[in-house]
Amino acid sequence: MSSKNYTLNIAHLYPKLLNIYGDRGNVLTIAKRCEWRDIDVTIDEIDLNDTIDIKKYDFYFIGGGQDQQQIAVAKELQKHKASLQDAKDESAVFLAICGGYQLLGHYYQPHNAEKLSGIGLLDAYTVAGDTRFIGNVTASCEYVNPKTLVGFENHSGLTYLQGDTEPLAIVKTGHGNNAKDKTEGAKSKNVFGTYLHGSFLPKNPHFADYLISLALHKRYKEEIQLPPLNDDIEVNAHNALINKKY
Ligand code: GLN
User: How far from 62 is each of 1, 22, 70, 83, CA to CA, in Å?
Assistant: First the structure.
């Protein structure tokens, strides 16, 4: 990297409500992997009734949560539907986990509650199923090297992708989006959703760096090579799930 001082501004959406399974660890991973490369990072926690200045943010994170918390966040997100679509159009990076992922689609239909409108950043929809999928997931992903993603899933929602929204990965072990079509997660432009908790990014450092590179490109309109880090611990954790006998 040049000696230029780079900055990355992160909006952590509704962490007081969508914060299960240590999903905050994804924001900490992005921040630390930037700081270890002398990239300055700001993290703004966005709460209910807060404004969201899309001119400021390069990276948006929204974590997972139970149906009850999703109801409150779904209502709030509707206020920001148009501006977050503008952020997507300007190549901002979004990472959404499980419950947060479901709300970036068109809707989430819980079991015993009204249908929750999503904000449609992903051409996808989710309906609650009768089975709760809980366990480790390994999947193949064409956007990174190595071409593997690992994590832990816990959801009853069944997500179906449509239109030009692509799967993030293809399930090797576990259930993924809907336990039927072998897809896991979703990608549309720089909007990424996944069912992988764990939290997700600490065990997938190559994917974390992919997201950082996309967010820096959005801000500086140039390819910025990230200096390599010593990822021995992270890679060992990743490979432990890949090599586990399921
Ligand atoms: N409530 C949603 C479901 O069960 C999301 C759960 C989660 O975020 N882990 O599918």
Answer: 29, 12, 11, 16
Report if residue 24 sits inside a domain.
yes
For 144, the token pair is: 């990174």
Nearest atom (ligand 1) to Cα of 21: 9
Sequential DSSP letters for 133-195: EEEEEEEE-TTSSS-EEEEEEEEEEEEEE-TTPBPSEEEEES-TTTSSS-EESEEETTEEEE-
- Cα of 32 vs its chain's centroid, Å: 17
Q: Is 63 in the pocket of ligand 1 (CB under 6 A)?
A: no
- In this structure, what CATH number is given to the domain that contains residue 121? 3.40.50.880
Q: Tell me, using a 6 A CB cutoff, whether residue 109 lines ligand 1.
A: no
Beta bridge partners of 192: 95, 187
In a domain, 190, yes or no: yes
Q: What is the pLDDT of residues 130-154, one digit of tens each?
A: 999 999 999 999 999 999 999 999 9
Q: At what angle do helices 24-35 and 205-220 cross, to 10 degrees?
A: 70
Q: How many domains are there within the chain?
A: 1
Helix or strand run (H / E) with residue 11? strand 7-13
With 0.70 as the threshold, say if the pTM is over it. yes
- Contact between 121 and 104 under an 8 Å Cβ cutoff? The reply is yes
Q: How much of the chain is helix, strand and coil, in % rounded to 5?
A: 30, 30, 40
